[in-house]
Amino acid sequence: MARQIIVLGAGMVGVSVAWHLVRQGHSVTLVDRRAPGRETSFGNAGIIQREAVRPYAFPRDLSTLLRVLPNRQVDIRYRPGGMLRAAGPLWRYWRESAPGRYRDIVPEYASLIGLCLEAHAPMIEAAGAEHLVRRDGWLEVYRSEAAMSARLEEARENERRFGVRFAALDAEALAALEPDLSPGLAGAIHWLDPWTVADPGGLVEAYARAFEAEGGRLEQAEVRDAAPVEGGWRVVTEAGERRADDLVMALGPWSRDWLARLGLSVPLFVKRGYHMHYASAGQARLNHWVMDEEVGYLLAPMRAGIRLTTGAELERLEAPPHLAQLGAAEARARELYPLGERLDAEPWKGARPCTPDMKPVIGPVPGREGLWCAFGHGHQGFTLGPATGRLLAQIMAGETPEIDMRPFRVDRF
What we know:
Elements: E1 4-8, H1 12-23, E2 27-32, H2 40-43, E3 47-48, H3 62-68, E4 76-78, H4 80-85, H5 87-96, H6 99-113, H7 116-127, E5 133-134, E6 138-142, H8 145-162, E7 166-170, H9 171-177, E8 187-191, E9 195-197, H10 200-213, E10 217-220, E11 223-229, E12 232-237, E13 240-244, E14 246-249, H11 255-261, E15 269-280, E16 290-292, E17 297-302, E18 305-309, E19 312-314, H12 324-336, E20 339-342, E21 348-354, E22 361-364, E23 371-375, H13 381-396
Parallel strand pairs: 1-2, 1-14, 2-10, 4-19, 6-16, 14-23
Antiparallel strand pairs: 3-9, 5-9, 6-8, 7-8, 11-12, 12-13, 15-18, 15-20, 15-21, 16-17, 17-18, 22-23
EC number: 1.-.-.-
Keywords: Oxidoreductase
Enzyme class: oxidoreductase
């Protein structure tokens, strides 16, 4: 039976949920203060990461902790105030990253990642967005043989357990693919399965247009209140009041505060990130998305220029930007590839919504009839949005979802 549904949040996850629900015949309104794909979905690395079957664990080995402690690394930085604000979730994150627990989490997480390409494919087709997508994988570049050998051992296990395809490239093979990278590199892992996107925000916008073409309604307005009412839910925005049978919370890092208003506590914290676009110097050309794995930044040849994305910054969600991490990444990137001038007036800043056990929250809220969750995807909201939308739509329709959704339930906390 068709229902009235409001989806809060027009990032990759919210747009994907809305698209799947409207395709089921429901009356769906998608609400966000900004246009679709303008928050975290806009600024990511633009990779649909089929290879990312292992979520990012909290470092527990002493050598990594000692490396990070001076707070000058490219891959991760922290602010004491931000760490204190998220102390509880970060402590749980550290515990969940213990080897035994992490071993249990990986196959649960991988079950979701395994759906990402087949979930994106029909949305790309419906949106007419093939021109934004490449299917030639991406490169994880290594400066040392030792680091590459260790990663290759893990890659072989991922291939055996989860069907992840890759090719090991020595220095000569890497130079053939990317002749403008600096010499002296040990080689690279070429992840063969992932798709890359030349304009991540543009892809979300295209998905949102496909949602509207199916009869969905898009409302750009600030949400002021969301509360249960008899027979459903009420959402108040600056444009007025709407009522619906069901409410889907897909507000990324802002989901925690909205659920808190409803008396629900979810241990969500953020990892912030930055990007900047550059021209290439001279006649240099970057042919693939390239991750400088041992340093911790990524270069992506996008429509807006070469996008440099940083690693993680542990800081409060709405704190002002701290640009030293981006500056450090830029300095190292110029050693790897001949970047030209900056193309953006100022760096972009976004925030990844993370959970202590590294898994998103997908499904109903027990005791809150008609309230549904779709957030907490950490580094992989762009990758997992369509799979999340498909699975949540299956649950909301009373169908048996294609994977076990118990690891992603909200009451696991």
